[in-house]
Amino acid sequence: MKSIKPTVAMLVAMSSLFAVSVDAAQPPPPQPPRTGKAAAPVDFAGQWVSVISEDWRWRMVTPLKGDFANIPVTEAARQAGAQWDPAKDEAAGEQCKAYGAMAVMREPGRLRITWQDDNTLKIETDAGQQTRILHFGVKQAPAGTPATLQGYSVAEWEGPPGGRPVGLAIGVQRAGRTSNTLRVTTTNIKPGYLRKNGIPFGEGAKLTEYFDKFEEPDGTEWFVITTLAEDPVYLNAPWLTTLNFKKEKDADRAKWRPTPCSAR
Question: What pLDDT does residue 164 have?
Fold first, then answer.
């Protein structure tokens, strides 16, 4: 049989085919990370009102001095709480000590949630007129970050069960464990109160929150925050609570009532 000698044209065609095959086998170039806003699986923007469905006696009124019920406090916390003096806090200009990140979401009132930019979610409270800033795209507070009333909050989105655990580390499952979740970890919090009656938390405190959003058949929107407060000095175990918020209509925006912090 007569052999076929490759021509220049054939060699060029074979070379081009090989190059195409190699290019097709290469993985696509890495994409830049999506912003917190672009990656959001749910929308928390809007005005929300707190619905006090638990812990009414500690949230709607200031607890009595020495009422440590429902919080796993240490003896050091009991001793500090016994020294609580709201008049002293007022005189020192520290009437906002119960409105820090560890406690402000438990205050009765309303929240306004907006995107400050593509990687920053802002939560404003009318109670105490506080502002929390949630940072996406970072792993922890930058070195040298000073302690403030609201601390430094790192936020990230979590998908529904399948790619993550459905329960907290202490074995308690969240209220919204079947939904997409916003997880927020807050550190660098200036020491303050877990409740208005002087139950303290210290500079080593850490707050982890899970925001779970869901909708009723009639379209009413809710979210639940499962909070996990930890403090190596004043808590002998993590303090687990849940908070409920209902979305208000545009006509309800007039119900926004900014009020200053109160020590009593």
Answer: 47
